[in-house]
Amino acid sequence: MNGLKNDGISEIVDGKRVIVKKPELLAPAGTLEKLKIAVRYGADAVYIGGQEYGLRSNAGNFTFEEMKEGVAFAKSYGAKVYVTTNIFAHNENIDGLEDYLRGIGEAGVTGIIVADPLIIETCRRVAPNVEVHLSTQQSLSNWRAVKYWKDEGLDRVVLARETTGEEMRLMKEKVDIEIETFIHGAMCIAYSGRCVLSNHMTARDSNRGGCCQSCRWDYNLVEMEDGEEMAITQEGDSPFAMSPKDLRLLQSIPGLIELGIDSLKIEGRMKSIHYVATVVGVYRKVIDAYCADPENFTIKDEWLEELEKCANRPAAPAFFAGTPSADEQLFGVHGKKASHDFTGLVVDYDEATQMVTLQQRNFFRPGDTVEFFGPNMNTFNQVVGTVVDEDGNELDAARHPLQIVRFKLDRPVSKDDMMRKGL
Amino acid sequence: MNKPELLVTPGSVDEIKKQIEAGADAFLIGEQRYGLRLAGEFNREQINEAVTLAQEYGKKVYVAVNAIFHNQIANELDDYVAFVKETGADALVFGDPAVIMAVRETTPGFPLHWSPETIATNYYTANYWGRRGAVRAVLARELSMDAIIEMKEHAEVEIEVQVHGMTCMFQSKRPLLGHYFEYMGNNMEIEKRQGTQNMLLHDEERSNKYPIYEDINGTHIMSPNDMCIIDELQDMVDAGIDSFKIDGVLQTEAYRIEVTKLYRKAIDLCIDNPDQYEDEKEQLLQAAEELQQEHRPLDSGFFFKETVY
Predict the structure, then answer these.
(1) Which residues neighbour A87 within 8 Å (Cβ) at sequence distance 6 or greater?
(2) CA distances from A412 to A371, A404, B28, B79, B149 (A)
(3) What is the pLDDT of residue B187?
């Protein structure tokens, strides 16, 4: 992995090996606010959903106007925007597709993420300047299928979550195409696209955005013997569950970079701005640190601790090193609380008075020790002093979501920095 | 009017003979290394025997190569598709485009059936795969009757529809049963249960029981009911649907044979005497109901069910 070969991935500069093929850090952006946060915290690209043809019916989902604004904002940071258009369409979804894709093209997005050949071919026809990336919904897990999509003219493929690092290596060797893979977040336990539990259990079409996450529910396992039902589990046993731990490939980022993977993707269009900021911020640091000096790179504990501050499930490396063990599933529990609460978003900071103006996101009160973090500063702790509202009235606590409050800080912060509180 | 093919999934070469007598026109067979959720395991020798037998009676054999492949097995596909062609089988059933690549290199022009299960949901995409070598699209089971007929109207490929049996709701690459037993500390029990196909997930809230089993392709969870639309075939026959499939996975041979007989009769009546079909279809449904195990009721799948998203 550390061979000093001319592999297109690294070069020797002043006697030191550096990575020249830096992968794209791709972040979820469920809303315009999340898009701006993701880009400000270091994402090279974001993926968003439009009003139709995406898989998150409940996410914010952008209008064409919002897409344009998002693209302009991203562009000012040199970042790209992709639109998830990855349903498996039914006949009734064909009408309107052309107009929709034209709208995406006109909004100036770089590419769309697609599963259905209907949408691939229609996009080519009506919005030929938009890149086409194959969605993970196609469960792409072998190099010959990668070659197929390359021959079909796709710009990039997103691999199935079931693909191992070694499998990625062969794909990269055999096929010259951009590869995007998930590095962090919640994931399907089924092959994506091949699960219709929601269709059966709740009459909601999982492959058109209706997934109700039935795989996270508990079941009883029984055995049929000669037409008789036999309970397999005893009273008090944990029920059968198939809920996977979340994916976290922080420790494998060096491996992924050395494989030449083109885009490293974070899951979670439904997640909060705090989650997006935290996760993007950590992976930005990891990628930059490794690329600058791969030989002396080590994983810092603080990065792992930082991820815990927004993690609502235990994490595991899933398929990267092979089929996951029983230990990578959740039995008897459904998740955990993150170690920190997101308590405020910095709206403004006045250097003269050292007063921060915050939008409240969770309860806090004077005397609490909180933590400030942001993309261009070192994280610091602060004991909250006197808190006042917009009109200068002193508050015994910041109780109301989105309430504007002010208090004095020991160190400067900037707009869009965040405040969190340990639990 | 074209008579639709009656396609079944036999468990063995022996069963093929009996299925022919029961009225089957075509057979879907294969081995789990390459094919998904098959009723029986056919090694290469048995596939040869099956094709020979079917051809003797003028019947067709399709070989399942519809797994989701990882690199290792993707590399074996040339050998396998060459073998399938050599047997004289009528088509390869695929979902993963790696199979198209293997056929292009090894057996160009060999007929393909596009069968990715849950994701075969619109006619444009069916025709897309038609332009890539598929002569038939096997439709998702989560479609309504109206959507199926609309697909047939626009399709440039043959359309196959499952009319009876269980359907897969979920496939994971992870060994979920094994993991659960391991978590419970019942390591001894895992061995005993490997290869068994009599486990059910009980969903108390919906009073449903979902069959669950593991094989080389991972863990499969199946529908709680068997779909049966033996009493609703006429519109699809009139629309010219090309193939009706009875999926007999996790069923007994005796069950499969009896179901074939009922559908043989139903299809023949739809073609030869629609009035008589109208008169007898309730009885046919009742006869099918009598074949069911107590915990597996019949339903009409998604044919008449509204799905939202």
Answers:
(1) A53, A54, A55, A93, A115, A116, A207, A208, A209
(2) 13, 18, 70, 67, 66
(3) 54
Q: Which residues of A touch B171 (CB under 8 A)?
A: 190-191, 194-195
Query: What are the sequence ranges of the domains in chain A?
Result: 10-192+244-330, 341-422
Strand order through the sheet with A394-395: A380-383, A369-373, A418-422, A340-350, A355-360, A404-408, A387-389, A394-395
Q: How far is A259 from chain B (nearest CA, A)?
A: 16
- As a CATH number, domain A341-422 is 2.40.30.10
Q: Could you give the domains of chain B?
A: 5-167+227-299 (3.20.20.70), 171-220 (no CATH)
A163 DSSP 8-state letter:
-
Does the beta-carbon distance from A137 to B119 stay under 8 Å? Answer: yes
CB-count exposure of residue B275 (10 Å: 0-12, 13-18, 19+): exposed
Q: In the 8-state DSSP scheme, what is residue A330?
A: E
Dihedral angle computed from the Cα positions of residues A325, A331, A333 and A334, in that order, rounded to the nearest 10 degrees: 70
In this prediction, residue B20 carries a pLDDT of 98
**Which among B169, B192, B220, B223 is the top mutation candidate for probing chain A, defined by the most A β-carbons within 10 Å of its own β-carbon?**
B169
Half-sphere exposure of B187 (CA within 13 A, CB side): 1
CB under 8 Å to A373, separation ≥6 — which residues?
Answer: A277, A278, A281, A379, A417, A418, A420
Query: What is d(CA B221, CA B171) in angstroms, rounded to the nearest whole number?
Result: 7
Q: Residue length, chain B?
A: 309
Q: How far apart are CA B97 and CA A183, in angstroms?
A: 25
pLDDT confidence of residue A236: 80
Nearest to A118 among B122, B170, B295 (CB): B122
Q: Does B192 touch chain A (CB under 8 A)?
A: no
Could you tell me the end-to-end alpha-carbon distance of chain A, in angstroms, rounded to an integer?
40
Test B199 with A223 for CB contact under 8 angstroms.
Answer: yes
Q: Is the CB of B207 inside 8 Å of chain A's CB atoms?
A: no
Rounded to the nearest angstrom, the gap between the alpha carbon of residue B195 and the centroid of all alpha carbons in its chain is 20
pTM: 0.95
Domain A10-192+244-330 sits in CATH at: 3.20.20.70
For B255-292, the pLDDT digits (tens) are: 999 999 999 999 999 999 999 999 999 999 999 999 99
CA B85 to chain centre: 21
Q: Do residues A246 and A186 lie in contact, with contact meaning Cβ atoms separated by under 8 Å?
A: yes
Tens of pLDDT, residues B183-207: 888 654 555 565 677 899 999 899 9
> In the block, which residue shows the tokens 């079944």?
B8
Q: Write the pLDDT tens digit of every residue in A179-232.
A: 999 999 999 999 998 999 999 999 999 999 899 999 999 999 998 887 788 888
List of residues 6+ apart from A144 with CB closer than 8 A: B69, B74, B77, B97, B98, B101, B102
Neighbours of B181 (CB within 10 A): 22
Using CA atoms, how far residue B207 sits from A213, B200, B225, in Å, is: 18, 12, 11
Report d(CA A292, CA A19) in Å as an integer: 7
Q: pLDDT grade, residue B2 (50/70/90)?
A: confident
Mean pLDDT of all residues belonging to chain A: 94
pLDDT at A224: 86
CB contact under 8 A, A142 and B96: yes
What is the pLDDT confidence band of residue A3, given thresholds at 50, 70 and 90?
very low
CB contact under 8 A, B121 and A88: yes
ipTM of the complex: 0.96
